[in-house]
Design goal:
Chain lengths: 344, 590, 382, 237
Amino acid sequence: MDFTIAAFLIQDGLTSGAIYALLGLALVLVFSVTRVIFIPQGEFVAYGAMTLSLLDSGKFPATATLLLVFGVLAFLLDLWDNRARLNAPVLLRNVGLNLVLPGVIYTLALVLAPMQAGPFVKALLTIVIIAPMGLYIYRIAYKPLADASVLVLLIVSVGVHLAMMGLGLVFFGAEGLRARPLSTGSFSLGFLPISAQSLWIYGSTIAIIVGLYLFFEKTLLGKALRATAVNRLGARLVGVRTQLTGVTAFVLAATVGAISGILIGPITTIYYDTGFIIGLKGFVAAIIGGLASFPITAIAAIGVGIVESFTSFYASAFKEIIVFSLIIPVLIWLSITVSVHEDE
Amino acid sequence: MSSSRRFIPALVVLVLLAVLPQLPVPPFWITLLNNIGIASLVAIGLVLLTGVGGLTSFGQAAFCGFGAYTTAVLTTAYGFSPWMTLPLSLAVGALIALPLGLITVRLSGHFLPLGTLAWGIALYYLFGQIDLLGRHDGIAGIPPLSIGDYRFMSGSSIYYVIWTFVILTALAAQNLLDSRVGRAIRALRGGGQAPEAFGVNVARAKLTVFVLAGVTAALAGWLYAHMQRAINPTPFSISMGIEYLLMAVIGGAGYVWGAIFGASLVLVLKELLQRLLPDLIGTTANFEMIVFGALLVVILQFARDGLWPVVLRFFPSKSSHRIRGDAPALGKREAPSPGTPLIRVEKARKTFGGLVAVNDVSFEVKAGQIVGLIGPNGAGKSTTFDLITGMNSLSGGQILFEGKPLTGRSPRDIARQGVARTFQHPKILPGMSVLENVALGAHQRGTGGVLQSILRLERTEEAALMAEAMRQLERVGLAEFKDRPAGDLALGQVRILEIARALALDPVVLLLDEPAAGLRYGEKQELAALLKKLRGEGMSILLVEHDMSFVMGLVDHLVVLDFGTRIADGKPQEVRENPAVIAAYLGGTA
Amino acid sequence: MKHRLLVSIAMAATLSVSGLATQAYADVTIGVTVSSTGSGAALGIPLKNSVELWPTEIAGEKLNVIVLDDAGDPSIATTNARRFANDDKVDVMIGSALTPGSIAVAGVAAETEIPHLAASPVPPNVSSGKWTFILPQDAGLIAKTLFKKMQDDGVKTFGYIGFSDSYGDLWVNQFKAIGAEYGLEMIAEERYARPDTSVSGQALKLVAAKPDAILVGASGTGAALPQATLRERGYTGTIYQTHGAVTFDFIRIAGEAANNTVFASGPVMVPENLPDGNDTKEEGLAYVQAYEAKFGEGTRTQFGAHIHDAMAILKKAIPLALEKAKPGTQEFRAALRDAIENGGPFPASQGVFEYKPDDHLGLDERAVVLLTVEDGKFKLID
Amino acid sequence: MSDRLLRVENLHVSYGKAEVLHGISLAMKPGSIVAVIGANGAGKTTMLNAIMGLIPSRGSIEYDGAPVPRSIEARVAAGLCLVPEKRELFSSMSVEDNIMLGGFLRSPSERAEIQADVYQRFPRLAERRKQLAGTLSGGERQMLALARALMSKPRLLLLDEPSLGLAPKIVIDILNIVAELRNTGVSILLVEQNARAALEIADEGYLVELGEVRKSGPAAELAVDPALMEGYLGRNA
């Protein structure tokens, strides 16, 4: 190995690490606010990438239809929940959020899809289609179980994951898709060529991390989310609704997932089931961060990316084994240092 | 949990299982039942691990893999006979589970499931990389099981082998849960503090159940290898691990029979979906996964504890634990002669950050005494209590028990010395019967291990433990409730139950944390009478109490704390007149 | 609510099972198990689709076709196969799409004595069985053609990158078996998993080894990732791809990077380019035209064609068997097996099958063509 | 506005199968302090939690002449606010953030206004606004809990053992603050162990034992009730 190869590998590791970081952050976000171990996070990534890729080829993305279906389901559930006190404002809110919003997005996709708009319009449309899915998935699958145990929520996540993956297979087919990069071309840093897409990845990851930081530090809603993570009862007592923070966390996660998909779609082939394995690597990072620390998760994710990159060079056949075994030393370390706590 | 409870339905099911292959049922049912049987084995392990022990694992499929590959390699490459490899397969499962368990079971909550997720994947990929294991193609040509010349080739012949193992394993699991070790495992869910306080080694109980789950999964893998006769890494992947967990959770993660129910439900459902969906929807697209995932979500939304409890509701049953009259008595500790010092607290100090919770407190409990430790809320009583029982470590000073320092000892160890306690917020296991809750207190007076429990070789000791538990229930006056779930009791009764449980430890001294809180007047009187009776029988008691009227006529000695400091110490009458005590209790400037 | 749910599940179970038990046995029954979900879905779905193009009857006998999904899991494949054998009393079974599943089905076929057409390659110990016949080209056949081409192109050393699964192992094993005969030396061996998002590390190592050529052992669009990465990393030598990679999705995803590549392929990908009179042209055209009419332009695959070929064989073999016995009987199955083994040659879209008692692979060089990509299309070499 | 700000009738609460509140009734006038005293485990905290909507209950709770709103946040918006026994602060967030979140349901301008007010009332907190809540002393934490509660512009404060674990001098400070709050128009339902001090600042008092109201009446009368004293000091037990 020489310096050039090392530089290539580090660059490659940073690129995948940045994506894992986004996933890891979303997982930590969702878990700390809702106690949901959100296995389907990877599906948002796959949906995002595949939606963008379909838009690239001028096709109408089936995810928009899916959004509409989710919306109708959420509408019916809300209707049922509020059957005892059905008044105009409640109904209006329900119709607006669950029917009009996805309807508008659906129409937008219908109009924009064949137009072959610029890459940024397509990327934006992708985010607009995927992000509200977080809301509906929370509403449909998790809200009725808001006070369930972590285990039950975890199994529900598995169910959601299977359903979303199945939907992905039906809508996108079994073959892989690849999106067009946001901008082509590359720059060179000395001997190292850096593609514009990887710059997008670094830039977006940093922007999202900064954005999340600002959201959590500077906005009241962000603080309410943090407050919920720190002390759920305290947050409820000041009037922060569990549902509000839950929905916000899920929408943020879906948005971050969609963006990850847009970023990763052009550099690799995405299948309906790719999301799971990418998501799991985000999990490795999130576990190292104790499912609580954003900065440690982000750093760990970069670490996972770089380890993965180097093992793919040195021992490619053992790559997955090494990457997923990474958490074992972390667990050993935790089991030695962390004192035994009472479970919740 | 006695196995005689659902005797008749169990017999019916057993007979049905036995004759099924002889009936003119579609042979495909047998294949499906074989798959269900193998999945049930893994799910039973998961019920022990997850449902009973509260530890979630996604990695059980990998343990199946170890069982399957062990026998595959030994039978194909080294000519072992399949029956010879059975113990070896199980041993490999146990050997792998041990280090993984050591690493993971000490961690609480979500680290375990996520940890198992990660190593489940790693192990799957590892199977595909090892030449000895045939890499991704796996190993074919595994010999079938055979007895003499008879070879278990057909589905309906291996059916009997599989279901014999399933039933034996289920019974073994049932036996285990109905034993001393099982009670310790069942206690894990209530948090580690309480079991430690009556001598259960929580870490070891967790490790035990983890290894047992690994062994059952390895057994399933062994059977799988000889049923399929060709293996490769696919059936041992993480998605199978997830599916096994689904079976356990959907079935009802706390019930051994729920595991079999869950496995049947999941596998039958998948078959049905595959058969029925294309006709229902009129397309051959793959909706199975979607419907399966959605069903999972819906089932959990309606039946959070799984479906087995729902099934059980159709079969209301009352169980009653028979106490054997001829049960031998357990060994008893020599009671110390009255007046000898038992607990000496010397300048005990505890600080949390800058806050001094216990400020150089000293007092003494002598044998045959009831000592009250009182003070307003937040005075440091419970912290002092935790210092004595080892739940918290001292920042300064020392605590002696029978002249020996307790510093640095674990709660378990302190309990073993004969210091039993109750909790301010009672820590009972609501689903377990009153009798079993008390028997848990006698945990460290028994020695029966896992194997004895499974084979029911510890029945004499178990009878003795139960008889002892019964004796303590009679002693405190709860005998009539022995078979009721502890969760049905009123708060006052629960507090008494905790005392009975503490007594079952055969303690030298009883530490009671606010035993009268939340009790009705009459209940308080009864409690006071009970404590006096215990003192009469030579028991020493240290009780933390907030309610002065309760302690006044009861205790021999009172220690009053306020803001972590001892403000009075003496006979109840003297203490009551103490101006500092009046001020602390009524506030203002008395 | 909960009770009702349970009751309805129980009812559904009873209904469907009782439905299964009373199946009519008069028609010719065919059981197909493929992986239409799971990791083999990309292979299984075209197979499943192609079943829809089958005729509804042969020689006046109605065809009763049952398609099941095994999700790539051999135990489910076994379950499916047992169900075919015991409940549906099939006369012939087909599947699965992945090798482990096919091995599982072959086991049941041998046990229950039902002819089995495997839609994926299986190892020799399975293909030498009495009841299993292999539809796809044997890896040895493809490898021979590829290695010969490499030798002809003057390749001495090559680097290998393949899936970290049995497909990836397959080509290494082939090389170890016969590579030396073609004067080839493998100087680097790299692996990756299908869901991997990057193979940069492997590509760097391959490029650094400076091989004359690179062989990719991967299938479907998964084969496009190393292709693209190698080109990105400046590898200009010829890249050789196996028949698994020959899909239009590959070109769509690899784009420009697909140039200067040699593919071994079954003839079905380019029947239009085959000279008239080629033994596979007629069946190939029939299949791709029917398939693309139903599923869209540019959707043909190598895998789906195996299902067509299975029918090409059965169309000829079933009438032969019908002369000897009635469908649904063991005699018919045995007769069908004999007809498949001895009734050839069967011209089909992927080659001409001529099975013999000691050869259940049945294909010869006519089953392999060499392709390259030009202007975003596959083109026949020579 | 009703002459009864809060009216609780026949309130029952069960945990599982065990009932812990057996039909508590209680009423309070606007602008008053009502003290609820009783031993540990008597059900005082349970009662507050039920009024706040944290746990399900049977019986009627009327707030301001109408049934109390269903959700917790609607109760907070309507001016009900609970300061729980354990304070439930956001320990890893700053004092300022804690206070700000107290006004989560208020408009930004309102929030700014009350915030200035709160800092004036609690100068200690103003000094420590950047400090993490978890690093405050016990008294400061209780002040912060009160301050956070005030941010929601409450009309009825439910205080659960505000003096718990505080040094005597600080207990007096806190209770003085509570007494002052009444003068700003906030009504207070005060659960206290420190019976005499609580009754000293209260208008009315309730003695709760074993989930039932044992005695109620003007605070001044209860304060000199000899039976009450017995209960606390155990004379004649």
